[in-house]
Amino acid sequence: MAASMSTTPGSSAGKTVALIVAAGRGERAGGGMPKQYRPLAGVPMLRRAVRTFLGHPRIDAVRVVIAPEHHALYHAALDDLASGSQSLGPAIDGGAERQESVRRGLEALADDPPSRVLIHDAARPLLPAAVIDRVLDALQVAAAALPVLPVVDTLKRATDTAAMTTVDRGNLWRAQTPQGFHFAPLLAAHRRAAAEGVEVTDDTALMERSGAVVARVAGSENAMKITTTEDHHRAEALLNASLEVRVGTGFDVHRLGPGSSVILAGVVIPHDGSLIGHSDADVALHALVDAILGALADGDIGAHFPPSDPQWRGAASDRFLADAVRRVAARGGVIRHLDLTLLCERPRIGPHRDAMRARIAAICGVPVSRVSVKATTTERLGFIGRGEGIAAQAVATLALPPEDEVDG
Fold first, then answer.
1. CB count, 10 Å around CB of 298?
2. What pLDDT is stored for residue 143 in this prediction?
3. Angle at Cα 296 formed by Cα 293 and Cα 298, nearest 5°?
4. Start and end residues for every CATH 3.90.550.10 domain found in the chain
């Protein structure tokens, strides 16, 4: 798509920050919570939006502007991403209106200002990376950049209930986000608008008011804005249609030694022995980790947490499983089902089955209904039958975006 370019080149040096606006309080999309925190195919919309920018090689940092009363929702959706990345800074408290929230976000960046800033709405969680690239490319020569889509429907203007006129759609476009800017001019435009009481519907309007020419780049139908319940259903259908199903298997075994309890699926069970291993020897969680990594084609538990590394001595295995879950999320995937089978003569698994399912579900962030735990014996055959060890096998079913998926 042709773009209208500024005659003043922008600097290509310095940092680029993505500022995601998520301070809305509306619940029109359903789910009993603000739409940016509602799960979309199992993942909160805000998390999807943040993850897109964290995973982009041309974005140096991500900040999110939220409603002051939403900190608990924010931390529930993003805390593990924040702990795993220095690029995601603390949340910024927004204002009553979007324009005020953006200005507060920019002011929070002003002490260490980036060269460029992308303003994005959390309500557009399916943004393709290619749109980010197009916006950043345009900023190399333009004062601002706006992704747009052409208006394809015939437009009518109603003057009253009986009279309507047709509007020429030839020069009309649908504006999307992220909108790209050089940081200093945008902050100055926001400060000026606040001082003068000027209200606009998006940030490029402030730049236009300052006399800047905004570059036009191609947007994407996938970057739709989710506002209503119908929008949410349409986005979920789009996601589910694009996901491919992957199945991985895992198997692990640990011998029994002296002790008074075993840890299985994160649950401590009294026993006349303990499982022996470099970590806590939770054979159940180890099998689940390998099943998830297998579905991701991402090695095995030993590759990521080698027993030769002293930092994992005695480590709780829920850390390993949480890391595998994080890898699924980083790929844009979701866990559909986990099936675990324990092989042992003792202890009896039945009394602890529900606790195990609940613990696995909590670690993985999935409903308990997606976790199965079963147990069987070997009819007293082999090392398991002799009570010398416990084994586990697991199957993980994931839904992942195709690796060769390309946005047009």
1. 15
2. 94
3. 60
4. 16-241
Q: What is the pLDDT of residues 239-282, one digit of tens each?
A: 877 788 999 999 999 999 999 999 999 999 999 888 898 889 99
Nearest to 90 by CA among 76, 74, 107: 74
Closest CA relative to residue 47, chosen from 23, 80, 86, 89: 80
Q: Are 306 and 268 in contact (CB under 8 A)?
A: no
CATH class as words, domain 16-241: alpha beta
Give CA–CA dist 66/273, Å, rounded: 50
Q: Which of 122, 120, 125 is nearest to 41 (CA)?
A: 125
How far apart are the C-alpha atoms of 28 and 25, rounded to whole Å? 10
Query: Looking at domain 244-400, what is its CATH homologous superfamily?
Result: 2-C-methyl-D-erythritol 2,4-cyclodiphosphate synthase (3.30.1330.50)
| Torsion, Cα of 131, 133, 138, 140 (10° steps) | 160
Nearest-angstrom CA–CA distance, 322 and 318: 6
385 near 345, Cβ under 8 Å?
yes
- How many CB atoms within 10 Å of residue 174? 14
Q: Which residue has the tokens 């990521």?
A: 304
What was the pLDDT predicted at 12? 37
pLDDT tens for each residue of 331-354: 778 899 999 999 998 999 999 999
Residue type for 207, please?
Answer: M
- For residues 173 and 103, is the Cβ–Cβ distance under 8 A? no
Q: Which tokens belong to 82?
A: 């924040």
CB atoms within 10 A of CB 372: 16
Binning pLDDT at 50, 70 and 90, where does residue 85 land? low
